[in-house]
Amino acid sequence: MNKILVTGARGQIGSDLVSALREHYGATNVIESGWRAPPHLSESQLFESLDVTDQRQLYKLIEYHQIDTIYHLAGVLSAKGEQHPERCWNVNVNGLRNVLEAAKCFGIQVFFPSSIAVFGPHSPKLDTPQVTVEDPTTMYGITKVTGELLCQYYAQQGVDVRSLRLPGIISYSAPPGGGTTDFAVEMFHAAVQFGTYTCFVRPETRLPMMYMPDAIRAILGLMQAAPTAITIRSSYNITAVSFSAAELAAEIQKHLPDFVCHYKPDFRQAIADSWPSVIDDSRARADWGWKHKYNLAAIVEEMIGEIGFRSQKAGN
Ligand code: AKB
After folding, report:
1. Residue 71 belongs to what H/E stretch?
2. Positive or negative, the Cα torsion across 28, 52, 100, 57?
3. 4 to 43, 72, 111, 146, 227: CA distances (angstroms)
4. What is the model's pTM?
5. How far apart are CA 222 and CA 68, in angstroms?
6. Which segment of the chain is annotated as a signal peptide (predicted)?
């Protein structure tokens, strides 16, 4: 029987992952946690306030709910991390260490989202291999490299911890919060609502991306794979598509021909420039059968449809 704790449950990935987990494992077996309780909770939605840097609070919650699986999504993303580096280190590293210590203590399975941010200017930009130079320039990237090493260390001590180096995630249900790949999601919303967007990276900036339903399938697929299939305990490279800001704008214009995109790069350009454009995820595909479903055209079609439908419903 799975009794699941999701940290950072109200973030971009958490919002969709919690619904998928509730569908798979039953609503009452999934406990959401985060800084603040959401304003509206139905009776079957279990929520606990949790600061992952507080080890005692975490242990109490695990014991009380008899948790056997943690999806540890609480974290500070790349752009926010540059504005608050100390908080980024504290939440991303100390929070993860608390979760892994608890996992060792209570025999808990853990999912940890790493990122393409582990790579840096000396990592190959194209087909970035699973094992290569990792020299991140951001505090966020540094915390993810450290996190991966912690995962590998605790795995050697018997913890069943599994991880993915996620690319930019695109979704319509919850907004991303403080990342560099956020321009992609922002562009969709601005295109539908205002017909214009000022993008904070240059048009030729190309990054690996993935649509949320693919990301959810990847996370669940990894966690459900037989332990013997998992040959990498630091973190798997994983990807779906790579496109530039200009290619995304052009694909959106196929649906919204009047859409205009302007470009005004800010500090996030340097972060994007330090990351790979296309990564090689062949180990994930070979080890546990990872396969993406959505290409750029399919992502854009669904995103435009869903955002349009939702803003019509909201009367915008
Ligand atoms: C970010 O932009 O910070 C994240 C990531 C790629 O890890 N989306």
Report:
1. strand 69-72
2. negative
3. 17, 10, 11, 25, 18
4. 0.97
5. 16
6. none
- 13 close to 80: Cβ distance less than 8 angstroms: no
- Spot the catalytic one: 71, 140, 172, 197: 140
Q: What is the CATH number of domain 170-207+240-277+293-315?
A: 3.90.25
118 lines ligand 1 (CB under 6 A): no
What does the pLDDT average to over 297-302? 98
**Stretch 4-23: mean pLDDT:** 95
Cβ(180) to ligand 1 under 6 A?
A: yes
Residues of the chain with CATH 3.40.50.720: 4-167+212-237
- Which atom of ligand 1 lies closest to the CA of 81? 3
Instruction: Give the other-Cβ count within 10 Å of 265's Cβ.
Output: 16
Atom of ligand 1 at shortest range from CA of 181: 2
Q: Given 3-state DSSP classes, what are the helix, strand and coil percentages for the chain, each rounded to the nearest 5?
A: 45, 15, 35
Q: Which CATH number fits domain 4-167+212-237: 3.40.50.720, 3.40.50.300, 2.60.120.200, 3.40.50.1390?
A: 3.40.50.720
High-pLDDT (> 70) share of the chain, %: 100
Residues carrying CATH 3.90.25, the chain:
170-207+240-277+293-315
140 part of the active site: yes
> Does 78 contact ligand 1 (Cβ within 6 A)?
yes
Question: What per-residue confidence (pLDDT) applies to 92?
Answer: 98
